[in-house]
Amino acid sequence: MNFHVLTLFPDMIIQGLNTSITGRSIENGTISLNAVNIRDYTLNKHKKVDDYPYGGGAGMLMQAQPVYDAYRAVTQEIATRKQKECVHGTDVQHTTQMLQVKPRVIYLTPQGQVFKQSMAKELALEEDLIFLCGHYEGVDERVLEEIVTDYISIGDYVLTGGELPAMVLMDAISRMVPGVLGNQESGDSESHSNYLLEYPQYSRPEEWMGKKVPEVLLSGDHAKVDEWRLEQSLQRTKELRPDLYEKWASENEEYFIKKAKKEERKRRNELRKQKRLKDAVKIAQETKNTEK
Ligand code: 6GU
Q1: CATH 3.40.1280.10 residue ranges for the chain
Q2: Each residue's pLDDT tens digit, 142-170
Q3: Which CATH superfamily is domain 2-175 in?
Q4: Which of 62, 153, 160 to mutate to test the pocket of ligand 1 (most atoms within 8 A of CB)?
Q5: How far is CA 190 from the centre of its chain?
Q6: Ligand 1 mean position to 130 CA, how many Å?
């Protein structure tokens, strides 16, 4: 995965992603980060990249020219890289096809579609992604029309710029790129629980401030542990995110059927046990009576 970020604050992006898991992935080449300073592409002799909006109004707008030229520099770089990759290949048809591909350009804006996990998964399939970070009051509409393919927001609140949202997206997308997380920590922790919140977790010691780790987690019975965790996830989600719970429930009807069957079996077994006990008592009583 190659991330390209068009921004007036490239240091912010580099600093933000060069740490922890994303940092490790950049270092080992699983993902790459190309932070491009839009200011480097302005033709204005004072390096200006913004101006007043026509029609008046508050604040300044990012102008079309530097944004477009920064975008062109990135797409040119991608095309050159692909060309080089093709020299080593043999399939000419495939080669031309690859060169025609236009990378997706994501503009971070509160007016966009609200970002969610399914979008992270989908975007992780791309080879290159270009993020355009606006600042000030926004960007000249004409360059947006020309280059942007996706308008994305990270929630219903307003930030000062698109840099933090771009980092949020890159973090979430990176987790879904094969090789970024270890085999153990698959990004698809949702594989068993697509919409569910995480279950509670505990580490050493077994008792802290008088609070004990739930018994089942010490049992070594993996099936029991899995069952307990799923139940905890369900409880939490039902209480904290009923909207997500409903989604999960509607997609996992068989879980509730199985659970109901299991509980019915348990109930019957209990009844049988009680009956056996009653019978035993009765027989004992009768024996006692005949002995008299
Ligand atoms: Cl993508 N940009 C800005 N400026 N503010 C936001 C946002 C994006 N998403 C939520 N608030």
Answers
A1: 2-175
A2: 999 999 999 999 999 999 999 999 999 99
A3: SPOUT methyltransferase, trefoil knot domain (3.40.1280.10)
A4: 153
A5: 10
A6: 17
